[in-house]
Write a structure and sequence with these properties.
about 100 residues, mainly alpha, two-stranded antiparallel ribbon, about 10% strand
Length: about 100
């Protein structure tokens, strides 16, 4: 009862304050989710670009490239400095393993 007597404005506005805080929390969670999804999509796009360049090389030369550098020099592949690429080739006629990480 003392809280109501000392600060009646706070109690009258409490529902509006709680709704405002709930909206702010929902917006923060939504922005965080969009950011995470965007990062995942950018990794997938980078990996797909490398795969397309590898397949193009195989179609034109009859073998998979020995390194990512070969693709960059001969096929114009560009990989942002934000990514780390693991490229592992077993044989020239077997599709290499390609994994892209964010640095």
């Amino acid at each position: 009862m003392k809280l109501y007597q000392k600060n009646p404005v706070l109690l009258k506005n409490l529902p509006a304050i709680l709704i405002f805080l709930a909206v702010v929390i929902i917006l923060v969670v939504a922005v965080s989710d969009v950011s995470r999804t965007s990062n995942e999509e950018s990794l997938a796009i980078a990996e797909n670009s490398i795969r397309r360049a590898v397949i193009t090389c195989y179609a034109q030369e009859g073998r998979y490239p020995e390194s990512i550098e070969y693709l960059q020099e001969n096929y114009g592949l560009y990989i942002s400095d934000d990514y780390d690429v693991r490229y592992s080739i077993f044989a020239s006629n077997i599709m290499p393993d390609i994994i892209v990480f964010r640095k």
